[in-house]
Amino acid sequence: MLAPLFRRPLPGSLEGMTAMEDALRLESVSKTYGERVRVTALDDVSLALPYGTFTAVMGPSGSGKSTLLNTASGLEPADSGRILVGGQQLDTSDETAATRFRRGRIGFVFQAFNLLPTLTVWQNVLLPARIAGSPVAKRHTREVLDRVGLGDRLDHRPAELSGGEQQRVAIARAIVTRPALLFADEPTGALDSARAAEVLTLLGESVREFGQTVVMVTHDPVAAAYADRVLFLADGRIVDELQAPEAAGVAARMAAFRPRKAVA
Ligand SMILES: Nc1ncnc2c1ncn2[C@@H]1O[C@H](COP(=O)(O)OP(=O)(O)OP(=O)(O)O)[C@@H](O)[C@H]1O
Hints:
Elements: E1 22-33, E2 39-50, E3 54-58, H1 65-72, E4 80-85, E5 88-89, H2 95-102, E6 106-109, H3 121-132, H4 138-147, H5 163-175, E7 181-185, H6 193-210, E8 213-217, H7 221-224, E9 229-234, E10 237-243, H8 247-255
Parallel strand pairs: 3-8, 3-9, 6-7, 7-8
Antiparallel strand pairs: 1-2, 1-4, 4-5, 9-10
Helix pairs in contact: 3-5, 5-6
The chain binds adenosine-5'-triphosphate.
């Protein structure tokens, strides 16, 4: 059984429902790196995220946040434990099957934006849908690009955009197909506070309007406050959580994780 700590009752309560109703479920997932020096990046992590929830993941540098995203999405294999997406177990032993499984179900916004340099903004945003053979309505694409403030940059190539603009292309690309599960690693890291607020509002709306489930790694308490819940990682374990977070409360919780200065 998973700790009830990690299940958040939603309006129209999900209490009593089975794992089928979780957009993402991790059961005792562990991941270790390195041969010479071994690092336990994830240490027996269990969590359950119901559909239509927005979760922020925070923790000190090296606490395992990116590893959590990468293993939960099947980009990297876990050493042990089970990962279920929409009730189906993610199997990373067959890379082609794992890629097919992810396609259409899972979206990503990476720290490195992974845009194709020869394609325009418009083409980059539509590429995943094209690969998946599931066309996206032009009007919807245009709306998303307008919402992230790139309506007048459609024909630009990534090298002709600022870092923040490239980040917004990556966000538009991830949400335009409305994947059930969206992982975002520092999606507002390169944005000023006004743009960050727009992007976070957009992510919040995609959760509330389209029932998407968003998992976002961030160092920023203000960004985390847009989520329904914050999970705090330390040394590869979930050590705390905050429901309905406010920036001040998140910052206070984060301060508790800072390494204490040695007292002389
Ligand atoms: N490919 C790798 N090989 C070896 N060790 C790794 C590798 N990737 C991550 N680690 C180690 O695993 C731990 C967790 O790393 P991870 O990138 O998940 O942390 P993080 O919380 O996302 O950090 P940051 O906030 O600095 O991005 C760290 O100690 C890191 O050094």
